[in-house]
């Protein structure tokens, strides 16, 4: 299990949230659409920073020092929350305290530019994007590669990961978000070598196969540990 191996590697507590899924509906059912999935994750993150722990004794983690990871659809969810999606999804605006708590975000095998995804995988429209976003001519409004940084805190570190063996999402997606994040950080005077990094030539497994491999644990774990150690040194 990836979470257990990551916890063993980093000695950090690891929490795995879930969120409601879109699915085929019977007549009369109300479809679950974006941003409902991301709202579930934002609610979970807000809980993490507010929870007082069992019996009010404090949580078994530091709520002011969080590192997040989103894989596949989870990468789109995190980008929709931590980039400024308020023009299309105002309910995804995080509380200011969450920006202060989140130190870094890892996104792997992510879906970021939805129209570009359809140009590579047109069959995804009917059974995937229409379920999650509804029937539309274009999904550009939900493509996180167009979203600006949120002004509350542009200093979150990002790691973009993609495997050369992924046949479900092509590397164009990860290249697009990587380049977009770099341009956003250049615009605010932040060092792109510090705040936006990538790993796109080290992994060989498939889309979900990377979660079972040891190298992925090492890539993610080392990124988290480097950030944590640097933060401790700066303090």
Question: How is this fold's topology laid out?
Answer:
Blueprint: H1 2-10, H2 36-50, E1 66-71, H3 73-82, H4 96-101, E2 102-108, H5 114-120, H6 124-133, E3 157-161, H7 171-187, H8 192-195, E4 196-199, H9 214-234
Parallel strand pairs: 1-2, 2-3, 3-4
Helix pairs in contact: 1-9, 2-3
Fold and architecture overview:
The structure is a single chain. This protein has 235 residues and is an alpha/beta fold. The protein has one domain (2-17, 29-53, 62-234): 3-Layer(aba) Sandwich (Rossmann fold). The protein is built from nine helices and four strands, in the order ααβααβααβααβα. α2 packs across α3 (73-82). The longest helix has 21 residues, at 214-234. The protein is globular.
How is this structure best summarized?
This protein has 235 residues and is an alpha/beta fold. The protein is built from nine helices and four strands.
In CATH terms, the superfamily is Alpha/Beta hydrolase fold, catalytic domain
Low-confidence blocks of residues? none
Give the N-terminus to C-terminus distance in angstroms: 33 Å
CATH uppermost class:
Alpha Beta
Rg value: 18 Å
Note the total helix count: 9
**Main sheet: strand order:** 1-2-3-4
Shape: globular
Any descriptors?
Rossmann fold, globular, 4 strands, alpha/beta, 4-stranded parallel sheet, 235 residues
């Amino acid at each position: 299990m990836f979470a257990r191996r990551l916890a063993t590697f980093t000695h950090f507590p690891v929490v795995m949230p879930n969120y409601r899924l879109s699915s085929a509906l019977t007549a009369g059912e109300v479809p679950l659409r974006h941003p409902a999935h991301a709202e579930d994750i934002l609610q979970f993150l807000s809980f993490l920073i507010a929870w007082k722990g069992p019996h009010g004794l404090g949580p078994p983690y530091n709520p002011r020092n969080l590192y997040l990871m989103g894989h596949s659809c989870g990468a789109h969810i995190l980008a929709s929350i931590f980039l400024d999606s308020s023009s299309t999804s105002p309910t995804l605006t995080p509380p200011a305290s969450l920006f202060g708590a989140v130190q870094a975000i890892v996104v792997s095998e992510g879906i970021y530019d939805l129209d570009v995804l359809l140009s590579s995988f047109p069959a995804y429209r009917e059974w995937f994007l229409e379920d999650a976003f509804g029937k539309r001519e274009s999904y550009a409004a939900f493509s996180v590669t167009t979203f600006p940084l949120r002004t509350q805190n542009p200093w979150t570190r990002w790691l973009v990961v993609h495997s050369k063996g992924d046949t479900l999402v092509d590397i164009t997606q990860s290249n697009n978000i990587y380049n977009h994040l770099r341009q956003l950080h250049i615009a605010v005077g932040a060092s792109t070598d510090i705040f936006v990094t990538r790993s796109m030539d080290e992994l060989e497994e498939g889309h979900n196969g990377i979660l079972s491999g040891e190298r992925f644990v090492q890539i993610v774990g080392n990124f988290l540990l480097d950030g944590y150690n640097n933060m401790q040194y700066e303090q």
